[in-house]
Amino acid sequence: MDIKTEVLIIGGGATGVGISRDLSLRGIPSILIEKGDFASGASGRNHGLFHSGGRYAVSDPGAAQECMAENSILRRIAPHCIEETEGLFISLPEDGLDFRDQFLRGCEEAEIPATLCSRDEALALEPELNPGLLSAVKVPDGAIDPFTLLLENVRDAENHGAKFLLHTETTSLILNGDRVRGIMAKDLIHGEAYSIDASYLINATGAWANQFLKLAGLHIDMALSKGTMLITNQRLNQRVINRCRRPSDGDIIVPNGTVSILGTTSLPSEDVEDFEVTSAEVSLLIKETSKMIPAIKKARLIRAYAGIRPLFRSGEKGNDRAISRGFALIDHEKRDGLKNLITITGGKLVTYRLMAEKTSDLICQKMGIDVSCSTHMRPLPGAAERVSLRDQLKKIGQSALKDRGEIICDCELVPRDEVEKFLKKEKVENFQDLLHRTRLAKGTCQGGFCIYRLLGVMHDLGMVEKDSNKILKEFLEERWKGIRPVLWGTSLKEEELIESIYQGIFNLTP
User: Fold this and answer.
1) What domains does the chain contain, in order, with CATH numbers?
2) Closest Cα partner for 118 from 141, 106, 100, 142?
3) How many other C-beta atoms are found inside a 10 Å radius of the C-beta of residue 131?
4) pTM of the model
5) Buried-state track 462-496, b at ≥16 Cβ within 10 A, e below 16
6) Residue with the larger pLDDT of the pair 239 and 420
């Protein structure tokens, strides 16, 4: 099988699918390939913060301005992916107030709305905060669902002619003088190898940028930074809580659905897939975040995970925190003499749309066409169907028990009919792909009680091709990676219960 397209996009994170949508709305054909599933990299391994830019108002004003501008746009085009919680930057006695004053000036210069709150006002908004805090600054932070955001971009792009090939790896580049004629690709599910010819190629692989560029003998100056996060079993805060100091480890707590996410670290990494969380990282995050919300010390943790940030160096010295969180758009024609290759990397989830716009503008410039971007004005497909978590809980609480139907996931209140409707409509290649597309296994039990129910539904629909026990084992092995670093106290008791269920009922043994 040989495929041809105008633009080939490598990488299925937020930036890649954003470019696909942008190009499709401009009428430019594209194909996106991704070696895993959508959001397999940093786009699916972050703390779900909907940035106002406040975090960078002092240390990285350029990135702060980009975040605030895109924050306003995403509120219009993707309201169903966002919970507008607001955010508080709190000053503790050990922080003093000097940085707070710098922060207020930085927010003013970056045009980030910021309101100074007294200690009592802050505690009235968030009763679990450290009562010893000095003051707080309110900013328009929020929480964002990265998986829904990505899939909505994919849906809109497909509606306008874009194509996506998941579980497809680039094995080599086909070079022809000063151009990349295309790639050789391999379908990782079925083992088929084929070529994809393209007039233009976009490297949107994020932290894997240099792995792709190596196929062309190229390299860019990047730093890989591992960020570790922890998930509590309940929602401890209603607003995003930041420490009002220069960005550091363990200074942010993001409410996300029914849980809170504690973050984050910034540790240099040499391995783009270094997702292991250490006990030292867990201890550090608990120690630092509990200074803001003391209840964290006694909170039950249900999962730990990590992601790798792709940071583009533009001459910065020092540690990873000193590197800008802005993005880099690299035209390899100007830099390396390859006329039709572009790399886009760095940035934040909240700036994915802007990154896609600038990349698509460059493609149009190279093609010699003048078609403007419209992604900042056109809402994503589900924007009119917005249903908040609070509305879901209210609906379930008001409905009669007999009308609720079978619930597959008790933690996230996912009903069977919703799962069946999704399975009949969407094409998924494997079990993990399905979990990326629903709220299943994201709650307190981390899939312990809902995964075997889901497998039963898939059996009923004739969607299970391999041994069921093998599927369950694969899921439990993946789940174990995130649970092991936080396994003590109540979490250990629940894990022993789940182990007995799977060994006793399903006869799963090590």
Assistant:
1) 2-42+147-221+325-367 (3.50.50.60), 83-142+223-310 (3.30.9.10), 387-504 (no CATH)
2) 100
3) 11
4) 0.92
5) eeeeeeeeebbbebbeebeebbebbeeeebeebbe
6) 239
